[in-house]
């Protein structure tokens, strides 16, 4: 195991766990943290056992385990928990470090958070992650937006773990500044659920 991890991930629910395992399978070392640290221990003694994954029991320990510029990805419920996590992380990070929100956040919140995090000298990415549990593990579609300077730093990881089309093109590219990533994810979800409704109604008829 390398001394420092390539990326940290907070939130070991189904999507978070599977993304971590995906990253590790593509050659990245990942540090993990969960607010209820019992989940960290269960993960480390279960699906993560023997893998290039570091379990941590505090945000301080998580941040200290990361290479610079640090990349910390939140896979937690959209809303106030994201703001609370950002406020907890900012004092622990240094200029140029990156906070990434991978949840289904409403894009105006990502606009606001990008401005706030940048005002502290840090970089911010709000990204859509699509494909559910299976996609997170085997290759999701990823829609990042936010601070443009963060993209070249996170690009190798995001494009490395994303789904690929037949010619090898990754299902991940930069979509724009501020809340653009979460805006695209919102539109994507609207089309997806509209399609599912259409299929259901056609079968019913």
From TrEMBL:
Molecular-function GO terms, alphabetical: NADP binding; phosphogluconate dehydrogenase (decarboxylating) activity
Coiled-coil stretches: none
Signal sequence region: none
GO biological processes: D-gluconate metabolic process; pentose-phosphate shunt
Xref: SUPFAM superfamilies: 6-phosphogluconate dehydrogenase C-terminal domain-like, NAD(P)-binding Rossmann-fold domains
Highest taxon in the source lineage: Bacteria
UniProt KW keywords: Gluconate utilization, Oxidoreductase
Metabolic or biological pathway: Carbohydrate degradation; pentose phosphate pathway
Domain 6-phosphogluconate dehydrogenase NADP-binding: 6-172
Domain 6-phosphogluconate dehydrogenase C-terminal: 181-204
Family: Belongs to the 6-phosphogluconate dehydrogenase family.
PANTHER family in alphabetical order: 6-PHOSPHOGLUCONATE DEHYDROGENASE
The protein's name: 6-phosphogluconate dehydrogenase, decarboxylating
Species: Geofilum rubicundum JCM 15548
């Amino acid at each position: 195991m390398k001394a420092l991890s390539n990326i940290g991930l907070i939130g070991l629910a189904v999507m978070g766990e599977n993304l971590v395992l995906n990253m590790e399978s593509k050659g990245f070392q990942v540090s993990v943290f969960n607010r209820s640290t019992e989940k960290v221990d269960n993960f480390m003694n279960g699906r993560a056992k023997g893998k290039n994954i570091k379990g941590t029991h505090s945000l301080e320990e998580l941040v200290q385990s990361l290479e610079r510029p640090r990349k910390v990805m939140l896979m937690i419920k959209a809303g106030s928990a994201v703001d609370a996590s950002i406020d907890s992380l900012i004092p622990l990070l240094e200029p140029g470090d990156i906070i990434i929100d991978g949840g289904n956040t409403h894009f105006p919140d990502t606009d606001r958070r990008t401005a706030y995090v940048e005002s502290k000298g840090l970089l911010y990415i709000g990204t859509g992650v699509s494909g559910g549990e299976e996609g997170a593990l085997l290759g999701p579609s990823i829609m990042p937006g936010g601070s443009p300077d963060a993209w070249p730093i996170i690009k190798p990881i995001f494009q490395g773990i994303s789904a690929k089309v037949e010619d090898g093109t990754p299902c991940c590219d930069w979509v724009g500044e501020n809340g653009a990533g979460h805006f695209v994810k919102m539109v994507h979800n609207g089309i997806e659920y509209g399609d599912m409704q259409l299929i259901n109604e056609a079968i019913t008829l």
